[in-house]
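Exercise 7. Given the encoded structure of a 493-residue chain, write a plausible sequence.
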């Protein structure tokens, strides 16, 4: 990847975007929204602010495609070939997709190229390979009966995906849903729809039949609600805020009681003990766990719990790494921290900092907006000490580059602080004590624990939360469970 290639793509004009319904690009019956780049605040293009009627048309197209079996009734080996082709196309267009995504949401290009097209291609390959390796079952019955257990596609899957990593997280949902034989309707985030629309184009080129993959852009309160309330959507999957997740559960109850699977973010505890095998490595890991993508990652280690005996020394290490990070133009290969997605998100981050100080905490690094003269939305990596477990910064998800540091005296207190949260998505422990490793894995109430590292789990590992971080899992073969119905056959022999 060369800077010259990136710069060539940086200024490519983007035509006004339409909706992708039933294999066609169609104008919506609503209005258009401007797409502002977080890099410089300039208008990139427009996307459709679809109407409820547009979403109804997309769901109908998906239902018709499922009903006539154009995808669901294909042999698994045939669906496998198509999804492999889609993975190939994502890889072939990786730089274009990465730059398009960065222009739309501000992720630094060094991370985006791996985490977006790189991860999405790998995810589609993983589920393409899994298609013909997921078997039904035969129940252990009496000899005069045969019990068969089938796994069938659910029908129409609605997917509402977030702005922070739309290709990666979108693939986590779309790849297993399509692999299982379902039709899908995607509602991308208003703040980052462009790569999902491009993915739909690549899916059609790969051979995904018309109507099987549909994309409708617009406001969550309009088309998102219409998707969630539809009587023709069988499963709804969502990554985003807890407030929206609660509404989706209500919509399910008010409509056809569709299954709803939610990934609702977290307030993950990154726990560093004095016996960590390498404190310098742990400090770098702690910095990157919160500051990559400007903290706009669901599993970010936003609560740093440090054993009191090493607190000052370790915080100084983290501050050194935070201050060394280069905040800048996310399309520059020299930038290590990119832009905040929107001015609203930036202002919310700064409000968290102000409230933390008002509650008695101390800013030891960052805390301010930078590069305002560019027109873009940038913030310094921020480290705040003196945070108490009950403080707002320790309890609420910031979704920005703001790290709250909390000291602890012993293992029991570390566990108590880690579990003092409504969330339970991810976490970490840094220690050389093998027995402590297993105690922490068991004791910390979270969907995933990292040990002496943070992040980077591949497609073989499930990602899901407990408590108010959601239900169900993305990634791994376990993700198939969301997109299939179990049907049993009881046969008298």
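Solution.
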């Amino acid at each position: 990847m060369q800077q010259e290639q990136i710069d060539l793509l940086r200024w490519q004009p983007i035509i006004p975007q339409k909706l992708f319904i039933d294999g066609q690009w169609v104008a919506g019956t609503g209005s258009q929204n401007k797409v502002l780049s977080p890099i410089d605040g300039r208008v990139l293009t427009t996307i459709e602010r679809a109407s409820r009627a547009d979403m109804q048309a997309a769901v109908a197209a998906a239902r018709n495609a499922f009903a006539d079996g154009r995808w669901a009734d294909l042999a698994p080996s045939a669906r496998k070939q198509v999804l492999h082709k889609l993975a190939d196309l994502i890889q072939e267009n990786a730089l274009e997709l990465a730059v398009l995504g960065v222009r739309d949401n501000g992720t630094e290009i060094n991370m985006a190229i791996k985490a977006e097209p790189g991860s999405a291609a790998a995810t589609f390959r993983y589920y393409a390979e899994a298609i013909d390796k997921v078997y039904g079952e035969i129940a252990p019955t009496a000899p005069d009966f045969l019990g068969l257990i089938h796994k069938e596609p659910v029908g129409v899957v609605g997917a509402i995906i977030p702005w922070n990593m739309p290709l990666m997280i979108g693939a986590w949902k779309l790849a297993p849903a399509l692999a299982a034989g379902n039709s899908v309707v995607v509602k991308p985030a208003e703040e980052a729809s462009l790569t999902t629309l491009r993915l739909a184009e690549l899916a059609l080129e790969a051979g995904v039949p018309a109507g099987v993959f549909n994309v409708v852009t617009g406001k969550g309160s309009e088309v998102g609600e219409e998707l969630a309330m539809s009587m023709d959507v069988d499963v709804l999957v969502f990554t985003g805020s807890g407030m929206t997740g609660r509404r989706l559960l209500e919509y399910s109850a008010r409509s056809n009681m569709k299954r709803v699977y939610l990934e609702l973010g977290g307030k993950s505890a990154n726990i560093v003990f004095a016996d960590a095998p390498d404190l310098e490595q742990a400090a770098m890991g702690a910095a990157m766990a919160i500051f990559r993508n400007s903290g706009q990652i669901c599993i970010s280690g936003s609560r740093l719990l440090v054993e009191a005996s090493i607190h000052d020394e370790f915080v100084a290490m983290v501050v050194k790494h935070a201050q060394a990070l280069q905040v800048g133009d996310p399309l520059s290969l020299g930038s290590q921290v990119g832009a905040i997605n929107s001015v609203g998100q930036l202002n919310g981050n700064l409000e968290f900092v102000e409230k933390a100080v008002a509650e008695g905490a101390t800013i030891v690094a960052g805390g301010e907006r930078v590069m305002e003269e560019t027109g873009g939305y940038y913030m310094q990596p921020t480290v705040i000490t003196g945070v108490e477990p009950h403080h707002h910064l320790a309890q609420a998800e910031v979704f920005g580059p703001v790290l709250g540091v909390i000291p602890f005296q012993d293992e029991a207190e570390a566990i108590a602080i880690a579990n003092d949260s409504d969330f339970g998505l991810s976490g970490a422990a840094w220690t050389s004590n093998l027995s402590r490793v297993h105690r922490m894995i068991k004791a910390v109430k979270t969907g995933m624990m990292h040990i002496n590292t943070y992040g980077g789990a591949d497609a073989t590992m499930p990602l899901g939360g407990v408590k108010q971080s959601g239900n169900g899992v993305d990634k791994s073969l376990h993700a198939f469970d969301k997109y299939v119905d179990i049907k049993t056959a009881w046969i008298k022999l």
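Remark. The chain has a mean pLDDT of 97. Students should compare their own answers with the one above.
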